């Protein structure tokens, strides 16, 4: 039935490749073309702010043999310039025209740039792709000082990589604390401590007024009037969705491309997945884009299955991780204002497990350097399990036993999981 059909995926990232592979797994026998403006063999983005900065090795998302096995035609270094829904055609930057029965947009996001005097000077970098990472890695080898503008995960990971090379680092953050929106004040403070203990200066409630230098940046002027010397600046001030193709094609977009549970946009020809897709994750309960690797993969796989005719909704609780120094932060779900945050310190510093409790039930969980406990905490969060605060807070609670007992109807009433 599908043999004569053609699906085109725009974007060979986590979502696009998971979708293409899921189309095959779900019986799509037609032609699949994946187009990406980036010339590199598709690579994982998370290592770009971590391992890549020291070993300069791109990690392929899938082995090259997979494209052959799945009969996926990869067109790299080719941008899509225009979608024409009325005649189902796609214009590419190499002057070709693809005719598709369905199009999937997994175009992701672009780094936001600062619009201040001096922003075009050399050595003011953003970090989104392999070329950015190569440029940053070269600058880190040249030495500091480094100013990171924006205390998000990518900015802090870059700060950690630079400190590991003995570079003097300052992080400039507009809000009260880095990571505040992502993890709330309790956890943000703990993560900041990892940096300040290693000598990173974190300057909060400030923004950049201007960059100065002759050709390349030499200093950064802050809104407080302070001036920071800088050999390199990394701007990590958020992202903007790559939704230009969709908007130009008349597709409904808000912050990203608005899609339904299956990934369909307002135009039945165009679907979207991953960072670009404003969708409703059942665990978050509201529409929005989620910028996590694991979510992009799972959402892409579900949308790919749906495009192949097997309607699939991604119901997984959102998950992300971040590596800073030798530490790993992992989080399932998202906290909301009004949640109570209960932190259980690990026996080895600075580890912890944190629970966001909403209406008496665990709604999200995070952990630093506790990979086994965070998996149990995930189960508590995804099933919205009610657990007394003291049990969550007590370091002796065996979370795996707790999960087993709470899941078993026989023992639900009488739980003793203290170690
Ligand atoms: C430096 C960095 C570190 C990160 N670290 C983590 C982490 O530790 N943990 C975590 O959970 N998440 C992390 N993320 C986020 C994660 O990588 C993203 O959520 C994920 O890559 C999104 O996948 P995607 O397929 O939706 O989009 P992307 O991976 O952004 O892929 C989009 C692709 O579309 C292509 N494209 C765009 N427009 C066009 C066009 N017009 N024509 C052709 N091609 C086009 C782009 O070239 C790109 O390859 C990190 C992101 C970055 C940048």
UniProtKB/TrEMBL annotation:
FAD/NAD(P)-binding domain span: 6-300
Presence of keyword Flavoprotein: yes
Keywords tagged on the record: FAD, Flavoprotein, Oxidoreductase
Limits of the Reductase C-terminal domain: 319-402
Any GO CC annotation of this UniProt entry: cytoplasm
InterPro entries xref list: FAD-oxidoreductase/Apoptosis (IPR050446), FAD/NAD-bd_sf (IPR036188), FAD/NAD-binding_dom (IPR023753), FAD/NAD-linked_Rdtase_dimer_sf (IPR016156), Reductase_C (IPR028202)
Cofactor: FAD
Entry GO MF terms: oxidoreductase activity, acting on NAD(P)H
Any Pfam family matching the protein: Reductase_C
The protein's name in its UniProt record: FAD-dependent oxidoreductase
């Amino acid at each position: 039935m599908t043999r004569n059909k053609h699906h085109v995926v725009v974007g060979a990232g986590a979502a696009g490749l998971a979708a293409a592979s899921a189309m095959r797994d779900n019986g799509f026998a037609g032609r699949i073309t994946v187009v990406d403006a980036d010339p590199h063999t598709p690579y994982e983005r998370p290592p770009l702010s971590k391992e890549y900065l020291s070993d300069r090795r791109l990690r392929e998302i899938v082995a090259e043999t997979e494209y052959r096995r799945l009969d996926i035609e990869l067109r790299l270094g080719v941008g899509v310039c225009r979608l024409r829904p009325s005649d189902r055609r796609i214009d590419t930057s190499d002057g070709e025209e693809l005719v598709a029965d369905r199009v999937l947009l997994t175009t992701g996001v672009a780094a936001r740039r600062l619009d201040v005097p001096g922003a075009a000077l050399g050595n003011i970098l953003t970090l989104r792709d392999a070329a950015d990472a190569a440029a940053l890695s070269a600058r880190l080898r040249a030495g500091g000082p480094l100013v990171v503008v924006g205390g998000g995960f990518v900015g802090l990971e870059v700060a950690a990589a630079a400190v590991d090379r003995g570079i003097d680092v300052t992080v400039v953050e507009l809000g009260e604390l880095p990571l505040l929106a992502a993890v709330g004040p309790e956890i943000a403070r703990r993560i900041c401590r990892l940096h300040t203990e290693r000598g990173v200066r974190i300057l909060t409630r400030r923004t950049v007024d201007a960059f100065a230098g002759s050709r390349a940046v030499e200093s950064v002027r802050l809104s407080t009037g302070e001036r920071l010397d800088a050999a390199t600046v990394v701007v990590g001030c958020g992202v903007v969705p790559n939704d230009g193709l969709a908007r130009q094609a008349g597709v409904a977009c808000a912050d990203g491309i608005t899609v339904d549970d299956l990934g369909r946009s307002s135009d039945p020809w165009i679907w979207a997945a991953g960072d670009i897709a404003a969708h409703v994750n059942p665990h978050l309960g509201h529409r929005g884009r989620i910028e996590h690797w694991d979510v992009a993969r799972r959402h892409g796989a579900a949308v790919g299955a749906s495009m192949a005719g097997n309607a699939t909704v991604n119901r997984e609780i959102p998950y992300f991780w971040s590596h800073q120094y030798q530490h790993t932060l992992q989080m399932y779900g998202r906290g909301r204002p009004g949640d109570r945050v209960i932190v259980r310190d690990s026996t080895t510093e600075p580890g912890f497990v944190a629970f966001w409790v909403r209406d008496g039930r665990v709604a999200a969980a995070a952990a630093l350097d506790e990979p086994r406990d965070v998996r149990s905490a995930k189960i508590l969060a995804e099933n919205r399990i009610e657990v007394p605060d003291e049990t969550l807070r007590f370091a002796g609670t065996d979370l795996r036993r707790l999960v087993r007992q709470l899941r078993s109807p026989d023992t639900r009433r009488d739980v003793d999981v203290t170690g």
